[in-house]
Amino acid sequence: MVKWFDRTPRDVTRQLLRQHRAPVLGDRVLLSDVRPALVPFVGQALALELALVAKAGGVLEQAPSLEARIALAEVVRIHASRAGAFARILDGEDVEADAALRPFTESTRDFTRAIDGADWYEQLLAIHVASGLLEDFFVAIVPGLPEDDQDAMLRALRGESAHPHMVRLLLGAIEGTPRLSDRMAVWGRRLVGDVLLQMYLAVNGPDATGRAVPSQARLEPAFNDIVASHTRRMDELGLTA
């Protein structure tokens, strides 16, 4: 077993930032064929999950009713539990969570700013859209992990879901404010691009500045199913994706 704490910080960072190009099949890249290194894969997932915990906590503080606060408390708990599961996977590899998170600090900070909505409603939708897309994406890549690590990651990703709480909150907000729908639909479409950048970072690795490498045309079909699932979630809310 690799002892990460016996390595220099530079050695650890180099390993965590190693680019993982997806194999291709003809003109297609299949996410199930991506072979990510476990530590950066889980490190990025943890960084993004902690960002969602923080954002859900902020939305909880601004909630307009006791019912909404109670539902959002459950959302925070569920995402925090998932983050804890990711951290335990790293611990099982003798990797400090701080080391695994460090390469993704700036990209996650940029992501958090990008999905920072103009008001409580947009913040709520940002959590729903981002968490749904990211969960589907990470689940799609899990088959590329070593077999011994797949079960723990799937249990973390497919455990208790905040989806029912978020749908109930969003439907209540949209039904209570009918004119909100158009604005939320536009906001939802914009969010997809920001989440896709995090997926490109996981698949292609970062460029020299640490940012996500832009998508390639043959990579796009790999995300069709993920975007289709997002579209169904938006349809559930009566919003056009």
Count of DSSP strands: 2
The main sheet comes to: 2 strands, antiparallel
End-to-end Cα distance: 45 Å
Spatially, the strands of the biggest sheet line up as 1-2
What is the radius of gyration computed over CA atoms, rounded to a whole number of angstroms? 18 Å
Which structural category fits the helices and strands?
A: mainly alpha
Along the chain, the helix and strand elements come as: HEEHHHHHHHHH
Unreliable stretches (pLDDT < 50, length at least 5) are: 1-26
- The general outline is globular
| Secondary structure: helix percent | 55-70%
Overall mean confidence score, pLDDT: 84
* Discrete helix count: 10
Strand content: under 5%
Q: Could you please describe the fold and organization of this structure?
A:
The chain is mainly α. The chain is 66% helix and 2% strand. The protein is built from 10 helices and 2 strands, in the order αββααααααααα. Strands 1-2 form a two-stranded antiparallel ribbon. A hairpin with a 2-residue loop joins strand 1 and strand 2. The longest helix is centred in the first third of the chain and has 27 residues, at 66-92. The chain is globular, with a radius of gyration of 18 Å. Residues 1-26 have low confidence and may be disordered.
